[in-house]
Structure formats: C-alpha cells, structure tokens
Amino acid sequence: MSSSNDLLKSLESLVESLVPPSRIDEPLRNELIAHCQEILTSRIGQSHEPDIGHLADLVKRQLFQSSPSGAASLKFTNLLSRLLDQHVLSRKHASIQFLYSLASSPQPSASVPFLPSLAPPPPARVSHLTLPLDKLPSSPTSPQSTAKSKAQRLGEYREQSGQPHLSEHLLLRDTLYLLQGISGKYVQLSSQSESNQQEHRLEFLDNIRYIISAPTKALIHRLSEVGYLYSRVDSFVREREGSSGVGMIEQSLCHHLQTKLTEYYRLIAVLESQMPTVNPSTEGNVTDMREQETGLTLRRLDVWINDWRLRMRMMSVCVEGARESQGGALVNLIHSYTDNGDPFIRKFTDQLLEEVSKPFFATLHKWLFSGELYDPFHEFFVAMDPNLAHLQYMHPSSLPGNINQLASDGFVSPEQDDPRERRTGLTIWEAKYRFQQDMLPMFVGEAFGRKIFSTGKSLNFIRYSCHDSDWVVTREKMSDTGGSLKYSDIGGLERSIDAAYSTASQRLFDVFLEKFKLLDHLSALKNYMMLGHGDFAEQLMIALGPSLSRPANTLFRHNLTATLETAIRSSNAQTDPPDVLRRLDARMLEYSHGEIGWDVFTLEYKLDAPIDTVIDPDAMVKYLKLFNHLWQMKRIEGTLSRGWMRVAGGARTTFVRLPDLEPSWHKIRIAMAEMIHVIKQLQAYCQLEVIECSWKALVEFLNKREGDLDAMIDAHRTYLDRLVKKIMLLSSKAGREENVMNQVKDLFATVLHFQDAVENFYNFCLTESMRRDRKLDSDRGLYTGPDDPDSSLEEHLPRLLHPVHDYGSQFSDKVQTLVAALQTHPDLDCRFLGVRLNFSEYYRGKQQKERAERAETVTPK
Questions:
Q1: How distant, in Å, are the alpha carbons of 524, 677, 834 from that of 531?
Q2: How far apart are CA 358 and CA 255, in angstroms?
C-alpha cells in the first residue's frame, strides 16, 4: 500500500512539473495521472510474437490521416528501414509500440516549453485579467487569490500616470537582435571612431509614450556584450575566409570558431522560438501569465547566455591574438590561457587548442618521423633557408670519378675558397634548417624542441647525405614508436620524441662509425697530421731532409708525392686501410722569395661528405697548423740528433788529435744536452700529455654513442680546440695569446743557428786535424800535401767559438724566460710543462745567480 502511494505522489509531482496548467486544473491533473497509470500497467512488451509489419501499417494509417500528401508516411518508411538495419536496439517492436502509444494519447491543453524553467515556478495566481467571471474563485477563505500582485498594481499606476514601461517582450525581441549584432527597434548599436579606435555604444530610443527602466537598460547592456563579441569573431572568420595566404593553424582556428558560431546560431534560434506570445485583448502590453511563468524573459535569457558570454570572450581574445601572431606563436597564445583557475575556461581552451594544434602536430609528425619539413606558411618552429633548399649532400661514391676525383692538382686553402661555391656538409647541416624559439609551443618546451629539431635534421641527413640503404628499416622503427600525436596526450608526445630521438641518433652514429669509418679518419689525422706514426715521421724526415733544405722554387709536387709514397712503404703506415692512404697527399703552401722547403712543405688529408660535416674545413686548417708546429719540432729533434751523433763520434776519433779544443767541445755538448732536453720534454708533453689524453676522451665519447650529430661535432671541436690551445701554448689573455708560442719559435730558430755555428766549428776542427796529421807526416819524412799557410788556430778559433757560445747562452736565457712564462700560464698542463723543463730548479738557480751578479756590479766598491 505504501509503494502505491509513493508511486501516485511521484506521478503527481512529475505531471505538475511537466504540465504547469495541471497545478490549477484538477480534472486535467487526474486525467494525466490516470493515463500514466494505464501506460505503466499496460501489456506493451509482453511475450507475444511481435508483428512489426502490422504495427507499421497502423502508424502509416495514422500518419496518412494527419498528412494526406503521404510525405510523412514515406519518411516513416525510410526511418523504419534504417532502424531495422541497426543492431544496437534489441527491442525494436517495443520501442515503436511505445512511440505509437504516445502519439495516440490525447494531447494536453497547454504546450510544454522547450526550455525548462530555471527555478521552481511559484504557485499560480488567479487573475481577473485572464480568467472569466464564471471561473473566479468564490471561497472567502483564500483572500490572496483575488488580490492583485505588486507588479500589476505598479503597472496600473504607471498607465494612469502616463509613463508606462515598455513591454518586456518587445525588449526581448530587440535583445535577440543584439545578440546577433543587429540593431533593434528600441535598442540600437552605434559605432564612433575616436583617436584611431572604433568605439561601440548602445543607444536606447526613449519615447514620451513609454520609458525603459535603468535596471532593464543595465541588463540589456550586459547582454549586448555577447552580441558585440560575436560580431568581432564573425567578422574575423569572414575576413580570413576571403583572404589568401592564411596559415593552416589559423585556418583550423577559423574552422573551430565557425563551428562554435553555428552552435551559437542554434541556441539563438531555440531562444527565439521560446518568445512569449502576445494576447491581442491586452493591446500588446501584457503577455499571458502562463507564458510569463514558463516562457523566455530577459533574466532567463541572461542565465542561458552566460556560458556563451565566457566562450565569446575567449574566442574574441584568440581572434585579437591571431591578428598579430601565427603558427606556433598563436598556439602559444592559446596555451597560455589553459593556466586558469576557472574549470569552464580551462576546458574550453583545451578543446580549442586540441583543434587548433592539429596542423602543428601533422607537421611535427612528418618532421619527427620522416625528416621532411612541410610548412608552406612558415608556422613551424623549424625553418628552412631558401638559398640552401635545393642543395643536397653529395658523396664521392656517386661521382663519375669515384673517390680518385679528390686528387685534384690545385690546392686552395679554405680562406681563399669562394663561399658561394663551397657548400660543405657542415654548412648545410648548420644553416639549411634553423630553430625558431618564438614559434616553439610552450607545452613542448625548449629541451624537447631541441630534440625534435635534432631528430628531424638527423633523419634528413641520413636520407639525403648518407644515402642509407637501411633507411627503410629505420623508418619502420620510427613509425612504430610514433603513433598519433595530439595535444591531449602530452605524455605520449614526450615518449614519442624521446624514442624517435634515440632511434635517429643511434642510427646516425652507426652510419658514421661503421659505414663511413669516422674513427679511422680521425686516427689517420692523429697518426699523420700529428706525427703519431713515429717510424713514418722518421722515414719522411730522412727522405725529405735534403730536398727541403733547398729553395722552395726548386721543389716539385711529383717528387714530394713519390717521397711520401716511399716513406709509407718503408714504415708501418703501409698497413693502414687503402682508403686512408689514398687520401694522404704532400703539398706546398704558397711561398715567397727566399723561403726554403721546410717553410712551405705540408701534408694534406682529403675528406668528403658526409665526413666533412664533423671534420670541416676550419678543422682541417687547425690540423694544418698543428702539423706545421709538430713538423718544425721534429726537424729540430732530427737536427740535434744528427749533431749529437757527430759530436759524440768525433770525440772518439777526430777530437783526440785536438786535446786543446776539448774544453770547447765539452761546453758545446752541455749546450746541446740542454737543447735536447728541452725539445724532448716539449715532444713528450705534446704527444703524451695532450694528444693521447684528448684522443682517449674522444674515443670514449664515440664508443658511448650518446647524443646526436651536434654532440659529435662539439666533441670533435672540443678535442681539436684542446689540442691547438695546449700544443700551441695559447693563453686566454687578450692581446697575449701567442706570446709563449712566439718564444718557442725563437727557441727553434736559436737551435738552428747554434747547429750551423757548431757545424762550422766542426768543419774547422776536421781541417785542423788534417793539417796536424800532415805536419806529423812531414816530420817523419812523409809528404802528404802542402802546408796551409792561412790555417792558424789562434786566429780562427775566437771567430768560430763566439757564435757557438753566443747562441748557447741565448738559448739558455730564452728557456729561462719560457719557464717563467709557463709558471704563470692560465692552463694547468702548461704550468706542469714548466715544471718538467725546470725539474731540477736549474733555471731558478741560474736566475738567482744572475741577479746576484747584477747586484754586485751595481753596488759601488
């Protein structure tokens, strides 16, 4: 019994909420409740064989009665056939039977409004204006039913005073026009230009016959904001539709805005259909009370339009930003509004950004997984230099002459090459594509943006520079890790970026190290340009020494090349790969008058794409500088070695006959030992402390295979810069970078001058020894030749020993200065070189001794 009462109460509440006239019409309410009970207790859907064909005939018969033309019946047949093809609904007969029962039931007397009421309606008031006299309530116990409301009394007072308020339904009609950016009859939009700015105003056309209250004006003004924002958005969309050159992201924005505006049009149409009807008997001033309770009013319109007010504001802000931004900058602008505390604005912005960013993610997907840049409107954060767009990397294997074409006769330094004609791999790698920070969306971040940029460049490099035959396999790996990229899945985007970056970088390292043998080329540069192959350097020095001592204009390239080939075949360098050996060549730099072969000879190692991306022409210039310095050091070492062997051998043979010159030769041996010590320490420092340590770090990096091509280039540059800085003893002090290096060059020149002086003294000693032998033979009665009357030891000895002692003392002083400069050098390894040169504090003690001598000479006796 209690469940039946609950059901009855629920049906009564449902009927009163859906059919408001039933609140005051008890027979109507009872009839509707009884009809609902019949539906609930009916046998629709019982277990009997459903006959859809018979039910369809019944529906068609009823539709033919309401529409004799047959259009409704034909439309029903079409809908029924589509319903039968669907597998979602399992009880199709029951659904059609239910709809047929509802259509066959008697219609209620009052229509239910489309829009639900925003608040529970107040109890109906029975007014003398709307009810006939025979239906007036006669119960004396309900005095409020016959009394007039305050609004009715206020309206009557205004009519009697001659200043009635304008009817709300008229203002409501104008307000709907304003929501569409159109002026109404009583409220109009006006625009004025003041100081180069368009100012929009709302004008109310007041009349002596009626007035519009201030609260109503404020409400209409509030509603008109939506119409003004709508006009701005609509004009932007129409302007972009009629213009050319609009970017894809901006087109996507316009498409999404047009979709939202279509939804807005639909809402306006629905609201317009809910306009209250006017009762002609009230002369168009008073609407039906039922319409006032359930129909559309200004305040209800404000509530319904409130969500669209926020939408229009956001759309207007995006429109204004789109006028000054494009591409990734526009996506950035929209993304900046996602950090909002209002969940409605945040949700709307996320939806907008999801649609607007689709062209961006399409371009990103093509760049990230294919290495192709499709950006016709320059909206992506990766831009291509149009001057380099037509250039591609070229490997010598695709040239007619293969790699032998590298051996051209002319040698031109990179500084003298025409930059318009020279397009190395590094130039294309660094300049063809560039990273645009202002176009990078904030939700990507700079770190991931750099990874995207590097990944696309790496894939492009693998395809068009390396001509990778395994590119298909790499592309399949990239596509497997890719998937779909979208704004709503930022976590998946980051995972895709990391996976693509790792795959592309790993493949790039494999191509360089395995296919193009980068490590072999770097090792060849170390062994040949930095004289790492000691036996090769010795053989080349022995073979070329006599030729290089001649003037530079007497040397010929084919002789140098033949000598180089001989040095290779007579040393362990012959075991190097043939591809490495045929890249090695002997050259002569441009020479001037008076220079000898030592000044212009150099080795050259030819490189091609894509290896020249890592070892670029600027790097080859640095390798050339290192070779010249180390080659000069090797020359000094060879000169001192030959001089020492001659002096040591002469002490056992020639100089025995000249015991009076033994003190002079002893001093020469001491000076030469000092020179040999300095040169050996310099060579050990360059080869062991600098070259080998730097090489170890470079090889470890390449074996790890971490990072991208930029990391590989940076690692090689770091390696080479460290070599140049430490071997050339460069300082970081401005204006004094090469001071120490110049001192070393002076040392080398002093050693050469010293050796020339020693050579002259040695030749004199040989002549003197031969003269004394002839004199001894003459004393024994043997004639071995005429006496040399000009040979006098006392006359020639001072002239020959003076330059020897002078250059020896100069060398010692310069080494002392060099040690002092190294001790204050900013580089730690250079300071350690100073310690090695002066490990016994010899130069420090000598310096103190010189200071003491100078002090004695200055002090008066």
A1: 10, 20, 23
A2: 12
CA distance 249 to 255: 10
Span 773-813, pLDDT tens digits? 777 767 776 766 666 555 556 667 888 889 889 999 999 99
Q: How many CA atoms lie within 13 A of 16 on its CB side?
A: 15
User: What span, in angstroms and rounded, lies between the C-alpha atoms of 305 and 220?
Assistant: 12
Virtual torsion, Cα 651, 654, 658, 661, nearest 10 deg: -50
How far is 549 from 542, CA to CA, in rounded Å?
A: 12
Q: Locate 648 and state its tokens.
A: 């040591």
The distance in angstroms from the start CA to the end CA of the chain is 142
Instruction: Return the higher-pLDDT residue of 419 and 151.
Output: 151
d(CA 601, CA 604): 10
- Helix 471-482 to helix 446-464 angle (10° resolution) is 150
Average of pLDDT values for 473-479? 61
Asked if 29 and 22 touch (Cβ cutoff 8 Å), the reply is: yes
DSSP code at position 301: H
Q: DSSP strand E in 104-214: where? A: 187-194, 197-204
Q: How far is CA 35 from the centre of its chain?
A: 70
- Measured torsion, CA atoms of residues 500, 503, 507, 508, in degrees rounded to the nearest 10: 50
Going from the C-alpha of 412 to that of each of 406, 617, 619, 621, 643, the distances in angstroms are 13, 11, 15, 11, 37
How is residue 351 written in tokens?
């939806």
Per-position DSSP letters for 812-827, written without gaps between them: HHHHHHHHHHHHT-SS
Tokens of 606: 């030819």
Closest CA to 44 of 90, 93, 11: 93
In sequence order, what are the beta bridge partners of 201?
190
The C-alpha angle 101, 291, 31, rounded to 5 degrees, equals 35
CB atoms within 10 A of CB 825: 20
Contacts of 497 (CB under 8 A, 6+ apart): 368, 448, 451, 452, 455
Mind listing the pLDDT tens digit for each residue in 371-388? 888 888 888 888 888 777
Cα dist. 638→402, 537, 545, 833 in Å?
39, 11, 9, 22
Tokens of 51: 């006959």
Query: For the chain, how big is the Rg over CA atoms in Å?
Result: 51
Residue 662 CB: number of other CB atoms within 10 A? 12
Structural tokens at position 354: 């999801």
Are 312 and 236 in contact, with CB atoms under 8 Å apart?
no
Running DSSP on this structure, what letter comes out for residue 167? Answer: P
The residue type found at 456 is G
CB 731, CB 740: distance < 8 Å: yes
Pairing of strands 584-588, 601-605: antiparallel
HSE value, Cβ hemisphere, 13 Å, CA-based, for 221: 12
Q: How far is CA 71 from the centre of its chain?
A: 62
Closest CA to 15 of 28, 3, 1, 2: 28
pLDDT of 651: 60
Q: Are 555 and 584 in contact (CB under 8 A)?
A: no
Confidence of residue 103 (pLDDT cuts 50, 70, 90): confident
Quote the CA–CA distance of 366 and 374 in Å, as a whole number: 8
What does DSSP assign to residue 193? E
**By three-state DSSP, how is residue 735 classified?**
coil
List pLDDT tens digits, range 265-322: 998 888 888 877 655 444 444 444 444 555 788 888 888 888 888 888 888 888 887 7
466 and 515 Cβ atoms separated by less than 8 Å: yes
Pairing of strands 433-435, 382-384: antiparallel
B/e letters for 560-583, b = 16+ CB within 10 Å, e = fewer, are: beebbeebbebbebeebeeebbeb
The rounded mean pLDDT for the chain is 78
- DSSP secondary structure letters along 236-254: HHHHHHT-S---HHHHHHH
